[in-house]
Amino acid sequence: MTRVLFVCHSNAVCSPIAEALLRHLAADRYEVTSAGLQPSDIEPNALAALHRLGVNTEGLHSKGLDRVADQYFDIVISLCEQVEQAAQAVPAARFMAWHFEDTSCCSQPEATKVAHEIYERIKLLVLVQDRQEKPLW
Known about the structure:
alpha/beta; Rossmann fold; ArsR family transcriptional regulator; Ptyr_pPase; Ptyr_pPase_sf
């Protein structure tokens, strides 16, 4: 099982969206969590965007990076520039930076746009990871 951590500043929009989407797409192959430097409540519009995509958000909650900092991950993904350095300090085999505008409050159209952008990147991540584990030839 591949362990993935998504990190953003507030753990209110981007990282919980990413956590829920990866879990939705490939929970059988990925153990996924998200965290933030200064966690705040998950933005209701982020949850609404996930619901519109048919993604289950049960159990999704904001947490601080300190709650996972001593754990090892296969992949750590920073979702905003403000947390890149802190995310790189988490023990991991690989680090990626996918930078989005992370705000603790966003409009419904912004949340929907971010959810779709993250969804596309996660689909690519899963495809690449699957190909590395099971070559085509």
